Amino acid sequence: MGKRKYTHVTELEPVILQMREEGKTLRDIAEHLGLTKRQVEQWVTRYNRRQRNLSVGIVPRPKGRPRKRPLSSKEEYEKEIARLQMENQLLRDFLRFTERK
């Protein structure tokens, strides 16, 4: 295989693990998959760190911004009531303001 610019190395995880169990070197694995030796080294380091943390009981956190949790129907109802109350107050203030002039 030829060299690739970018690869999701985690998709190749089963192949890399199998080749490591067979006793292949990092260079052999990299050449077989069309990666650089450095890419395979870094993946192995991350994989070993992840396995160590899992064995100790540290669960990896998801990457990126957390998702918004959906509101329950009661929470949605209360939020809508608060919005309508604020809107009513703004309209009252506006009418009061315009009637005085």
Count of spatially separate domains: 2
Query: What fraction strand?
Result: under 5%
Give unreliable regions as ranges.
Answer: none
Distance between the termini: 81 Å
- Please give the radius of gyration in angstroms: 29 Å
Looking at the structure, what is the overall shape?
Answer: elongated
- What is the H/E string? HHHH
User: How many extended strands?
Assistant: 0
| Main β-sheet description | none
Output mean pLDDT. 88
Helix/sheet category: mainly alpha
What does this molecule look like?
With 101 residues, the chain is mostly helical. The protein has 2 domains: 9-56; 70-101. The chain contains 4 helices and no strands. Helix 2 crosses helix 3. The mean pLDDT is 88.
Explain briefly what this protein structure is.
This protein has about 100 residues and is mainly α.
